[in-house]
Amino acid sequence: MEKISINTEFIKLDQLLKFANAVEGGGMAKNVILDGLVKVNGEVALQRGKKLREGDIVEFGSEKYIISKEEK
Question: Is the pLDDT confidence value at 45 over 90?
Answer without folding.
Answer: yes
